[in-house]
Write a structure and sequence with these properties.
It contains eleven helices and 27 strands. The chain is an alpha+beta fold and 496 residues long. The strands form five sheets. Strands 21, 22, 23, 24, 25, 26 and 27 form a seven-stranded antiparallel β-sheet that branches. A six-stranded antiparallel β-barrel has the order 1-2-3-6-5-4. It has a six-stranded antiparallel β-barrel with strand order 7-8-9-12-11-10. The protein is elongated, with a radius of gyration of 30 Å.
């Protein structure tokens, strides 16, 4: 090949390669462009939704708040007897009746989730009827002397609190007005994880702020009365009481809480399902308060370790941790350590199901409750009582104590008898108190002051009986201890 022809060949070759690459790039760019356009076309446009719904979202501010209760113990909660610190039962009472909690008393924010709190006198709400009924959070208006509602068009109203329910954190307000914009409610049961949702409120007092995100989880149990809708919608102090909306502009929840280690939004927020809030609001509208049923038990989760060790086939249900001796469950025969499977024929799939179902049962109802106990399913009848704001708890009086003690070195455990009068006041028929827990006992979670009620489903009534049962234990197998701690019953697996 001649040099001129070779040169011409390379020129055409490079031109061809250049043209190919450019066509390829153009083609590739076209595909990217088309993909980007397709993606953007599927991204929701919230403008119409916001225009439609925001006029019914209001800012709420209060002129005064109820002062916080600084008492370490709830009213009526047992006090530690006046015992000398050297008394062998001092640590027992200190552990058994710890400050700041007790039967039926759950600390705010259990599970790392604090109750939604806003700066003093600032919150949100939304109108649910054209005559001026408004839904918000209990903690937004609790203890308020005056409630001022400001609408997006700058109109201000003095609102009256029709009723407020602390357990569900729902409040119903009323302003005087006609033909007011209002929001329609949706059906939370149709919500799917991953769908888009919108929040409107007044974070930090910034009225009519709009944030969007997706539903992260449903039926989230935070230790409160209701299961929550979890989202990643940005919610901050002041958003409390505002609506969580679906893409149809329907309210599916009331923004109530956030998970935070700093006090601000960290990507997790919680909303009260609107169907539950509506039920509460209807009672508040009729009577100004919510009437709920109670059966007088404190419950907890059934863990897999406990279920396996006890021979319980699954991890559903709710474990009874304590029974109020003056409540309806005591005469019905319900005992600490029972696992509640059904209430009025409704399955208890998770712990939060039971208080919701019982709370919705009319007081005076003779309800059937199915419990699992020591490998058997028992059907018991319990008469539902009305849940009061405060429950009576027995006072513990000082008694001279000289308990019998014994130790088991291989478990690292020392126990002592509990006086009968103390057992009676605690609602127990028997048990021994742990005076020291080290070694495998300490590593398994047993602590000083725990009261051992049973071992491997064998009741423990005294130190002597504990000794007899403990001597028969296989040192190579797991033992399940049913203990009482802080007014609650717990299953602890002691692993060799």
């Amino acid at each position: 090949m001649k040099l001129s022809n070779l040169k011409l060949f390379f020129q055409f070759s490079f031109f061809g390669i250049f043209l190919f690459l450019n066509i390829g790039l153009l083609s590739f760019d076209g595909k990217v462009s088309n993909f980007s356009h397709a993606a953007s076309s599927n991204f929701p446009d919230f403008t119409t939704l916001v225009e439609k719904t925001s006029p019914a979202v209001v800012n709420i501010r209060t002129t005064q708040r109820e002062s916080a209760n600084n008492n370490n113990r709830p009213p009526g909660f047992p006090q530690i007897p006046d015992l000398d610190e050297n008394d062998p039962m001092y640590e027992f009472f200190k552990r058994f009746f710890p400050p700041g909690g007790g039967p039926g008393q759950s600390p705010p924010g259990r599970g790392g989730i604090p109750r939604g709190q806003v700066p003093r006198g600032v919150g949100s709400g939304f109108i649910i009827s054209d005559d001026g009924f408004i839904l918000s959070n209990h903690h937004v208006v609790a203890g308020a002397g005056e409630v001022i509602v400001t609408m997006p068009d700058r109109r201000e109203f003095s609102a009256s609190v029709i009723g407020s329910d602390q357990r569900t954190d729902v409040a119903l307000l009323k302003i005087d007005g006609d033909n007011l914009p209002y929001l329609k409610t949706g059906n939370p049961s149709n919500i799917k994880v991953g769908e888009w949702v919108l929040a409107i409120g007044s974070p930090f007092g910034l009225e009519n702020t709009v944030t969007a995100g997706i539903v992260s989880a449903l039926g989230r149990d935070t230790g409160d009365y209701l299961p929550f809708i979890q989202t990643d919608v940005a919610v901050n102090p002041g958003n409390s009481g505002g609506p969580l909306l679906n893409l149809n502009g329907e309210v599916i929840g009331i923004n109530s809480q956030i998970y935070s280690r700093t006090g601000g939004f960290m990507g997790i927020s919680f909303a009260i399902p609107i169907d539950e809030a509506t039920l509460v609001a209807s009672q508040l509208k009729k009577t100004g308060r919510v009437i709920r049923g109670r059966i007088g038990v404190l419950i907890g989760e059934v863990t897999k370790d406990v279920a396996d060790a006890l021979g319980f086939s699954n991890v559903t249900g709710a474990m009874v941790r304590s029974v109020d001796p003056d409540g309806p469950s005591s005469p019905a025969g319900i005992k600490p350590g029972d696992i509640v499977l059904k209430f009025q024929g409704k399955k208890i799939k998770r712990v939060s199901d039971l208080p919701r179902i019982v709370g919705g049962t009319k007081p005076g109802t003779l309800a059937k409750i199915d419990v699992w106990r020591k490998g058997k399913v028992l059907s018991l009848d319990v008469k539902v009582e009305e849940l009061k704001s405060r429950e009576k708890v027995a006072q513990v009086q000082k008694q001279p104590i000289k308990p019998k003690t014994t130790s088991f070195k291989w478990m690292g455990l020392s126990v002592m008898d509990v006086p009968q009068d103390v057992l009676s006041k605690l609602g127990l028929n028997g048990g021994v108190a742990i005076s020291s827990a080290q070694g495998i006992s300490g590593r398994s979670g047993l602590v000083q002051g725990d009261v051992i009620v049973s071992i491997n489903n064998n009741d423990v009534s005294s130190v002597s009986q504990f000794t007899m049962i403990a001597n028969k234990l296989d040192k190579k197998k797991v033992a399940v201890f049913l203990i009482r701690r802080g007014g609650e019953a717990l299953f602890i697996t002691v692993k060799p």
